[in-house]
Amino acid sequence: MKIGFIGLGIMGESMCENIIKKHDDKVFVFDFVKPQVDKMAALGAVACANSTEVAQNADVIISMVPKSEHSRSVYEEVSKVTDSSKICIDMSTIDPSVSVEISKMIKSTGAQFADAPVVKSKPAAIAGKLGIYVGCDESLYETIKPILLYMGENVIRMGDNGKGLVMKICHNALVSQIQNGVNETSTLAAKNGIDILTFAQAISYGGGQNFYLDSKKDVISRNDFTTAFSVENEHKDIGICMKLAEESGLKMPGEENAKRVYDEAMAAGYGKEDFSATIKIVRGDK
User: Fold this and answer.
1) Is the per-residue pLDDT at 127 higher than 80?
2) pTM value?
3) CA proximity to 1, closest of 111, 107, 153, 143
């Protein structure tokens, strides 16, 4: 079974690299940034000139692109060459309603489609230990799960098309609120003479312990906001969450506050930094 991979950014690069290393057949790759394609080719992948070429050669076509409009563009192109022999898996984090539209377009060609967004960030992508939420029918899930396990260690089917993305958006919204709680309380502690590492140790003794603080305490203590997952990507996901909440008739005041912090972080020029850089907004850094 030949695999195609479209989108070799921060996450896609490492996800694709794991497929190349673990899969026993050809892997076809494309990205608009040619050095990323060349990097994968050096590992044994077959470089392609565009998404169409990937889709023509691959049995399973995987995409990992930034936004809804990018996924739509990829699959409008890919749909011209898909048929009943093809499976498409979009691992991008996009608007669930857009993904459902894409699934209908791809299925109309006879091909199968799954949304399979990922959780965790760059280190997990490198290690092949991502969490993956899948939206597709049960039979397709069983077919694609071995491929997804090249990239992740925890894979779960959430329901039909779009449901993987609903879960991903809920996950990232929760993370943003946990993060904001960490930002505010650790800053309050710092203003009263308790540093972030001591704060994190003390929190671990009680019910406030959380993965975000455990994984980010060291980088926050160093003010090292090297990007594993960017402010702009989380800002995008929060925007999708607020749209989904509106469509669902739900008020989310906690997420509205997280969005305000992210709006300020974007306005301050932190978009390309790691999403932990939002603490600078809470601290009032200049």
Assistant:
1) yes
2) 0.94
3) 143
